[in-house]
Amino acid sequence: MRRIFLLVTTTLIISTVTARADAPAATRSSSSPSFTRQEDVVYGRSYGAALTMDVFRPATAKPNGAGVILVVSGGWVSAHELLASPFFKLFVDPFTKRGYVLFAVCHACQPKFQIPEIVGNINRAVRFIRYHARDYGVDPMRLGITGGSAGGHLSLMQGFAPQPPKGDAPDPVDRTSSQVQAVACFFPPTDFLNYGKPGVNWLDLPKLEQFRAAFDFQELDPKSGVFLRVEQRSRIEELEKSVSPIYFITRDDPPTLIAHGDADVLVPLEQSQRVIDKLKDLGVPAELIVKRGGNHGWADGNVELEKFADWFDKYLASDADRRNDGKGDR
User: Fold this and answer.
1) pTM for the whole thing?
2) Strands 218-220 and 143-148, bridge-based pairing
């Protein structure tokens, strides 16, 4: 059966899906028996607005004790309603049928919020999931993260540049690590200062105008106590760099898998290629799946999602599973 897997700008389009993700909270859907769903779990607040996630638990497979975080984001737009879209539905079944608990995380989004705040939201989500991991039957040290486009960008930021715990925070969640142990994502932007070619700034490309609100940076003015829009180009570029995953890569980063089309009209393939090359140079397990003729999305994206699940199977395996695999290889 042919499936169309396409993400164009902030519109998510897919026809013919295998899983339905709009079942009532904590109930099993007759059309997708691989999971149960708990909706609207509040993991934090952003300037008074609730930040929520949905939790999908395996219903038919034996839980494997690991968790996968799905960043619900396209063009840095996020909403609970997007989980009903075919694009995000496709993410559920490949993981829950293998025993993973899937955490579908929504974030405060543009145009009201910019990428630095959004990155903070995802850090808060990972902290919350780790702090409450035992409640979800998940090992807090076996968390993977995934997403597509902006969701892929945020996944890489979480993998390469997790914000340090706030040791003196009154909320114990904020004192918890936000590191993840593996990353697998689709077509992420990774370097906003060198976009497709050296020296090409993302903000100077007319075709990306619709995403500009995510880069409408504001900073607190210590004198007036109000947030002011950043106007100075040099400061804007510093902030762009601060949310570009490629500048944070180290040899301690988690194993990373990226799938990217070589005909992507929004995010050039080189954005992923340079990241994977840099990870490999440092000895980090890394792999790039190049989809020949693939645009910003392609037919049968579920094929790559199965490979993502394979990746997490390998790098989120329990110590016992690793020992058993080692015995089997002897």
Assistant:
1) 0.88
2) unpaired
